[in-house]
Specification:
5-stranded mixed beta sheet, elongated, alpha+beta, 488 residues, Ubiquitin-like (UB roll), single chain, Glutaredoxin
Length: 488
């Protein structure tokens, strides 16, 4: 394809002079434009359009802007085949076009152009004889009228303005037709879009249905596998139980065929599962625990007296405890003395099971020390005997303190007599000298003896130093709280 090199106006003028087809191809660099460009450049299309004026415009160029002002381009690529006579488009190809499609459009446009040219030639030929006959029949006028008659045929020919108006009408008609075609195309595309959307929704629904079906199948498969695994485990458990029962029955038959052993050895060698889970209600199982950590278990009747259990322990641990032993319960801790030997194990709450501690007895020296400790405990400050002894002594101490306090200072209150366990815990009062009494008065906050330069006045629990000579009253602000700490 040979493309015209020049502006749109030059291309239109060339097509009008040659009275050939005017082709305009709007294209960009996209694959659709490249494919259509290859179709235009093919030999078949080039041979058919060799007599036409072909112009290629690209978006953004001046030629494209000038062309779109008259012929709007909505889709790129677009091919226009325009008539040079009327200026209207004969064929329009939008989008990608193949070689065959372009050939068909070119042939259709050339046929339309040929028919339009023939019609215009016929109209021109019919108008010429009519003008000639009118000129022959008309009488010869004067010179002025002859001049007017000579100008009549020229006036009857269509002027350029009429041609332009007609071309504009044709362009408006084609534009309206193109707009209707675009509306129809938009409607078709909208229907196609809705149809494709409907198909897409149907496809998604089918896909969801397939996924749900696959999930159900997968869950069923996992459930079947879990059931099979559970059945396999149950089968193995049943086989293990059967093998265990067979082994136990074989060991029982072997033990029955062997020599009988003693009852004690048989009871020790019997498996723990052979023992009954609980003792009869009339039996008592006692575990005797020793200081070294060992233990001894024996079953007695619940009506058995404690002396029988004590004798049972004595027969087996006489070499361990040469000084004797004593029995004690674990919790609550209580010694089982000889006084309760005539009581039964059930009465002592040692049935059906219990643990008893076997402890060695202390020596005579330890027992004597224990009796002395008991005497000291009897004479402890909390005992009643000690309180009875201390009551008169406390009364005497209170009287003595009152007398010594009155003699020393009339303003000093007497010390109240202690009561209860505090009085009992105080030591016996001893006679003291006058110096000791003064020290005691100083400790009690009564101040020094007469002759000292300071005195003490007490208000509640606060002691105040006050000079005896009536010094500055500001010294009353100095206080002493009895703990040698200064208060401001």
């Amino acid at each position: 394809m040979k493309w015209f090199e020049g502006s749109v106006a030059d291309a239109i003028s060339s097509a009008q002079q040659k009275r050939c087809l005017f082709i305009v191809f709007a294209a960009d660099e996209q694959p659709a434009s490249v494919s259509t460009q290859e179709s235009w450049d093919s030999d078949a299309v080039g041979s058919v359009a060799s007599s036409s004026v072909a112009l290629k415009v690209t978006p953004g160029s001046d030629s494209y802007t000038q062309f779109t002002q008259i012929y709007p381009v909505t889709i790129v690529p677009t091919s226009y085949m325009i008539s040079p006579l009327s200026g209207g488009p004969l064929e329009v190809v939008q989008g990608t076009a193949s070689t065959d499609e372009l050939l068909a459009k070119l042939q259709s446009a050339q046929e339309k152009l040929t028919s339009a040219g023939s019609a215009m030639a016929a109209n021109t030929a019919g108008a010429a004889p009519a003008q000639a006959s009118a000129a022959a029949t008309a009488p010869a006028p004067q010179t002025a009228s002859g001049a007017a008659a000579s100008t009549t045929p020229a006036a009857q020919q269509p002027s350029n303005e009429d041609k332009i108006a007609k071309a504009r009408e044709l362009i408006a008609m084609k534009r309206q037709q193109r707009q209707e075609e675009e509306k129809q195309k938009d409607l078709d595309s909208e229907l196609s879009r809705r149809e494709s959307g409907k198909k897409l929704q149907e496809y998604k629904a089918q896909q969801k249905s397939r996924e749900a079906s696959d999930r159900r199948k997968e869950m069923q498969r996992e459930k079947d596998e879990a059931d099979r695994a559970r059945e396999e485990i149950r089968r193995k458990i049943a086989e293990d139980k059967a093998a265990r029962r067979q082994k136990q029955s074989g060991s029982a038959a072997a033990s029955a065929s062997s020599e009988p052993v003693s009852a004690t050895a048989a009871a020790a060698a019997a498996p723990s599962v052979a023992r009954p889970p609980s003792l009869p209600s009339d039996m008592a199982r006692i575990q005797f625990r020793f200081p070294d950590g060992s233990s001894l278990t024996e079953d007695f009747s619940s009506t058995t007296q404690l002396s029988v259990a004590r004798q049972f322990v004595a027969d087996r641990v006489s070499d361990r405890f040469p000084n004797g032993f004593s029995l004690c319960t674990t919790y609550p801790r209580q010694e089982l003395t000889f006084e309760v030997d005539d009581q039964t194990l059930q009465e002592l709450q040692l049935s059906p099971r219990s643990a008893v501690l076997v402890l060695p007895k202390t020596t005579g020296k330890q027992r004597r020390g224990g009796s002395g400790a008991g005497a000291a405990t009897a004479l402890s400050p909390d005992s009643g005997v000690w309180k009875i002894i201390m009551i008169p002594l406390l009364l005497l101490q209170a009287i003595w303190q009152w007398l010594t306090g009155s003699a020393a200072s009339s303003s000093s209150p007497s010390t109240p007599a202690p009561s209860g366990s505090q009085a009992a815990s105080q030591p016996m009062p001893q006679a003291s000298s006058s110096g000791d009494a003064a020290e005691a008065r100083q400790r009690r906050g009564r101040g020094p003896e007469t002759g000292s330069s300071f005195g003490v006045s007490k208000e509640g629990r606060v002691n105040r130093f006050k000079p005896n000579d009536g010094g500055d009253e500001d010294d009353d602000m100095g206080t002493w709280n009895g703990n040698s700490t200064q208060q401001q």
